[in-house]
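can u do me a favor
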């Protein structure tokens, strides 16, 4: 049966110099320790993600038409826009409502109201640079 070249080379290899062998052993040990640390860190991250996904409950938001104050009573209030303003769009999130309006001079403004506190909490002008 013919021999392969790799087998011939393996048989003819000389043993490593003791100092080179020591360096090789240190490198193998270093690699093993680092791979162990990396594996441990990866397991910690995976465990944290699993724990977080099981422990947190997603809050169920109330439907938009069912906004209530902490006392449980429905919210009723007036939102006052500047005279002549035309409402373009609205958006509601939690206890805040965002209203986009176009003023009489053509400028667009976003008003943000707090429904629980029944007050204006922000006004943002939309303008071109």
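np, heres the sequence
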């Amino acid at each position: 049966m013919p021999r392969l070249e790799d087998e011939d080379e393996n048989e003819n290899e000389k043993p490593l110099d003791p100092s080179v062998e020591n360096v090789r052993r240190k490198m193998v040990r270093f690699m093993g320790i680092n791979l162990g640390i990396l594996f441990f860190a990866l397991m910690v991250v995976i465990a944290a993600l699993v724990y977080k996904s099981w422990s947190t409950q997603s809050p169920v938001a109330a439907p938009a038409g069912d906004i209530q104050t902490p006392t449980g009573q429905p919210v009723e209030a007036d939102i006052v826009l500047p005279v002549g303003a035309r409402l373009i769009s609205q958006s509601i999130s939690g206890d805040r409502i965002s209203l986009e309006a176009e003023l009489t001079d053509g400028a667009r403004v976003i008003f943000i109201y707090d429904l629980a506190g029944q007050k204006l909490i922000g006004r943002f002008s939309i303008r071109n640079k």
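The longest strand covers residues 86-93. hope that helps!!
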